[in-house]
Amino acid sequence: MAHANAALTPKHRLRLARLIVEDGWPPSRAAEFFNVTWRTADKWAKRYRAEGVAGMADRSSARHTQHTKTPEPVVRKIVHLRWKQRLGPIQIAAKLDMPASTVHAVLVRCHLNRLTHIDRVTGEPARRYERQRPGELIHVDVKKLGNIPDGGGWRYLGRQQGDRNRIATKDRTGIKNTRYQAKVGTCFVHTVIDDHSRIAYAECHDDETAATAVAVLHRAVAWFAERGVTVERVLSDNGSAYRSFLWRDTCEALGIQPKRTRPYRPQTNGKIERFHRTLADGWAYKKLYRSEDTRRAALAGWLHQYNHHRPHSAAGGLPPISRLNNLTGHHS
To answer: Is the dihedral of CA 290, 295, 301, 303 positive or negative?
Structure first.
């Protein structure tokens, strides 16, 4: 298609060429008539003689020859230095005595231009996956958070005031550690997230025992069922609760296949690990809470915001609930 400022469209190229070839006009006269150079007029006349009407169409402006590609042995060296030593284009170029722009082009072509594309442990390209339908796989884990003392914690009030609040809480509850220091306890947030939709379910508890984990699983499965999702598999880490016979028997009773990640390999459960960071930033540490009860009460509202309104990059900028079947009343 001719560009906006083109002197000749395909239709006018054909008229110009016919004036020269069929009517015998000199190229200079035809060029003056159409307000173009005589070289342009002569070019279209030659194409008309050689190709006819088809020669008047636009052609690609891409070059006929391409630059020589980087040899494969050099590409392998670049990839090796990127994987094993995490070097950037400038450092790799210095080692191999070649332009940094060439190294960068090779890294882009191999999808290694960003270190986030590389597994931190193995140095291999990160293997990303997503299940095809909701419920095919859910991830479960526990996020541990220190309880908030009465009056607020140190993150917002500073160390001195935070310590005073911890002592005041200890005086009220009488709970202290073995060294008689103030102890406010731990909040165990049991989290469940669907691999395909990223829709999340979470509960706060005071422990992470197998009995608690099993109870959370029962309620999570029922919660997903209300939204038309049937859980088929569950992926967990190697925590004691998930290695227990109770967990195994419960999954069998629910018709769920339990799976566990490889030891010391949290990347396999990376979706829920990333959710924990979002949970901490958006709920746990987002604002000053004056008590632990206040923070726990705010969890349900934040989860609704996350599931129904917060745009998620994995869902194309839509909230996770958009990937479930639109059941009446569930998406509002």
So the answer is: positive
Report how far residue 298's alpha carbon sits from residue 273's, in angstroms, rounded to the nearest whole number. 21
Q: Where are the domains of the chain?
A: 10-55, 72-117, 138-147+185-323
Task: Supply the angle between the helices 38-51 and 10-21 in degrees, to the nearest 10.
Answer: 80
Please check whether residue 238 is in contact with residue 260, taking contact to mean a CB–CB distance below 8 angstroms: yes
Reference 139, options 243, 258, 281, 18; nearest CA is 258
Separation CA 213–CA 251 (nearest Å): 11
Q: Is residue 103 within 8 Å of residue 92, measured between CB atoms?
A: yes
Q: The pTM is what?
A: 0.63
Domain 138-147+185-323 class in CATH: alpha beta
Cα–Cα distance measured from residue 95 to residue 97, given in angstroms and rounded to the nearest whole number: 6
Q: What is the pLDDT of residues 243-270, one digit of tens each?
A: 999 999 999 999 999 999 888 777 778 8
- Provide the phi-psi class of 24: left if phi over 0, else alpha when psi is between -120 and 50, else beta: left
